[in-house]
Prior knowledge:
Elements: E1 18-24, E2 32-38, E3 46-55, H1 58-64, E4 75-76, E5 80-87, E6 98-102, E7 117-121, E8 125-127, H2 134-138, H3 141-154, E9 162-166, H4 171-182, E10 186-191, H5 194-202, E11 206-209, H6 215-221, E12 226-231, H7 235-243, E13 245-253, H8 268-271, E14 277-280, H9 290-302, E15 310-314, H10 318-327, E16 333-337
Parallel strand pairs: 9-10, 9-12, 10-11, 12-13, 13-14, 15-16
Antiparallel strand pairs: 1-2, 1-4, 3-5, 3-7, 3-16, 5-6, 6-8
Helix pairs in contact: 3-4
Amino acid sequence: MPESSPTARPWASPAATTMRAAVLSAPGIENLSVRDVPVPRPGPGQVRIRVMAFGLNRSEYHSVTGQAGGMSYPRVLGIEAVGVVDLDPDGAWPPGQQVATMMGGMGRRFDGGYAQYTVVPREQVIPFSSDLPWEVIGSVPETLQTAHGSLTTGLDLRPGQSLLVRGGTSALGLAAAALATEMGCRVYATSRRAEGCELLASRGITPLLDDGSVAPRVREAEPDGVHAALELVGVPTLRDTLAATAVHGTVCFSGMLSDSWTIPDFYPLDWIPNGVRLTTYAGEADDLPAEVLQRVLDRIESGDLDLLPVHSYPLPEIARAHEDMAAGRHVGKLVGLPWA
């Protein structure tokens, strides 16, 4: 049975004292390399996970390009991982329990998920049970956490409402659109490419080719504006997204695909239309309830939910994966497989 199969269940603690990990020694893609490092040992309140897959995120791209704060070097990257519990000194989690972990300083303040093993605080471990391939499981947790939190906490989206997703063919955009469509919402989503619009349409989403001004076309379909809008591109499109939103509607700023972090000379009375609400969302592991993760994995396994296209890379190809992410060569979620 292949090592990447969930049913292989590699539960035993490693006999080896070293593991393979992707380490960033300084900002710059040329400083990201796979090397042998010591297998980490869990301290009080920590759990060691044998990592079977990890999602790649824009956050790690920001780390590689030197845009992220709170970094120290050398650092094993990765703000999320999925795998099985390898060692919990306190016995709270049994060996072999399938788990996800994310955020909390992973990949920045302490070593993260781009490795064969990672050690994390026990409180950011989320259990699940699934027979899906690890690369599919690895595509879900952090993207789901942000999508679910943006739609619930950020937007308070209700069934039957209308939603605009700006940056609709990003992994987060596709996940948010899928969840909103499942709720019975009317979903509009943007892409800068015709092929992206075709993908959105194939998923029952109304596509909008993004030329920087989609508000007039949104209001052709929704004359009063959309009830909610999820801004994933960032500052360059935010003003137009606000203009597409109804009075008492909400725009949630959850992504920065443009890498534009701040608004120069921001004048709220000029930028924000009367009565439109602007908020943000950025969550942690405890913002993704275990039952939500389990429900989504079950629905993917049953074929009732198509969340994301997945593109997987073995650990030695992590630099190429980052180059592909930066260039936008793939639609969907990029996933690393440390044992491939």
